[in-house]
Design a protein that fits this description.
This protein is of the alpha/beta class. The protein folds into 2 domains: about 1-35 and about 85-145 and about 195-270, TPP-binding domain (Rossmann fold); about 40-80 and about 150-190, SIR2/SIRT2 'Small Domain' (2-Layer Sandwich). The protein is about 40% helix and about 15% strand. It has 12 helices and 11 strands. The protein has helices at about 5-20, 30-35, 45-50, 50-55, 60-65, 65-80, 85-95, 110-120, 135-140, 200-210, 230-235, 260-270, and strands spanning about 25, 100-105, 120, 130-135, 145, 150-155, 160-165, 185-190, 215, 240-245, 255-260. The chain has a 6-stranded parallel beta sheet, sandwiched between helices. Strand 9, helix 11 and strand 10 form a beta-alpha-beta unit. Helix 1 (about 5-20) packs across helix 12 and helix 10 (about 200-210) packs parallel to helix 11 (about 230-235). Bound molecules: 2'-O-acetyl adenosine-5-diphosphoribose. 2'-O-acetyl adenosine-5-diphosphoribose binds next to helix 2.
């Protein structure tokens, strides 16, 4: 762990976490920054280099599906070429080993799921060439993905949804991926600006009402309703522990706010 991170703050956060019966972990793009993925609002952030209105709205897709798919194809390639970092892995282990842990993410990069899957595959002892699936419970403790996932698609006509990891050919409209049920055009299964969040947000708010602690990692906490999840925990009597190199609107509400990168700090809290 780096020297600048406040050791007393870490100790206090560990105590709060060990006392908490139920913990809601809320993550944002900052947790994946240590895997090499750009955040949205940082110095080289996605929303600084691209205009959200031209790419992440239903109107943008209706106007130019090729351009929108090209952008999501690039983001898929970037996410697929990254690995879950120490923070994703520590949180996945935390959720597997302790009851009462719910991971809620605003990220669409699939890295929490990959971390959970990596841990759910028990490595064989040396010499045995066999990989065994660990108990199903482990694979089931997957994150709630509030904003969807880059590696899922949704049909624009029949609303079929399924996993899709194949490369996107966005060279022309007629090379874009089509639905395996009805052959209509597919779209990324991402919640775009102006669209309602699905059932995941309702589940997240009901978990928040009951949570003793909200561990907030790597989010600027400016996008609603996700940012309110932590304030609901606080209003219902729980506490907030924040991990972020920068202060955010949640900092003043937090019992502990640790200034550092997720991969440095999170393993020392939940390990
Ligand atoms: P942002 O880009 O708004 O914020 C990223 C946060 O991560 C900032 O507060 C950074 O200080 C922090 N950060 C940077 N490096 C970090 C590190 N190594 N460890 C921990 N934290 C670090 O991203 P989000 O808060 O996730 O929505 O943005 C929320 C939503 O806004 C996204 O889900 C996306 C976007 O518009 C949609 O696309 C619907």
């Amino acid at each position: 762990m780096s020297d600048e991170i406040d050791p007393q703050g870490v100790e206090h956060a560990r105590e709060l976490l060990s006392e908490a019966g139920t913990v809601l972990v809320l993550t944002g793009a900052g947790i994946s920054a240590d895997s090499g993925l750009a955040t949205f609002r940082g110095a080289d952030g996605l929303w600084r280099n691209y205009r959200a209105q031209e790419l992440a709205t239903p109107e943008a897709f209706a106007r130019d599906p090729r351009l929108v798919w090209e952008w999501y194809g690039m983001r898929r390639e970037a996410a697929a070429s990254c690995e879950p970092n120490a923070a994703h892995l520590a949180l996945a282990r935390f959720a597997i080993e302790r009851d009462g842990i719910t991971i809620v993410t605003q990220n669409v990069d699939g890295l929490h799921t990959r971390a959970a899957e990596m841990l759910a595959v028990e490595q064989p002892p040396a010499g045995e060439g066999r990989v065994v699936r660990a108990d199903e419970n482990k694979a089931a403790r997957l994150p709630l993905e509030l904003h969807g996932c880059l590696f899922r698609v949704r049909c624009t006509q029949c609303e079929a949804r399924y996993g899709h990891r194949e490369p996107i050919d966005a060279s022309a409209v007629n090379t874009l991926p089509t639905c395996r049920s009805c052959s209509s055009m597919l779209r990324p299964d991402i919640v775009w600006f102006g669209e309602p969040l699905g059932q995941a947000i309702e589940i997240a708010f009901s978990v928040a009402q009951e949570a003793d602690l909200c561990l907030v990692v790597g989010t600027s906490a400016v996008v609603q309703p996700a940012a309110s999840i932590a304030t609901v925990v606080r209003q219902a009597g729980g506490s907030i522990v924040e991990v972020n190199p920068e202060p955010t609107p949640l900092t003043s509400l937090a019992a502990v706010s640790l200034r550092g990168g997720a991969a440095d700090v999170v393993p020392s809290l939940v390990g």
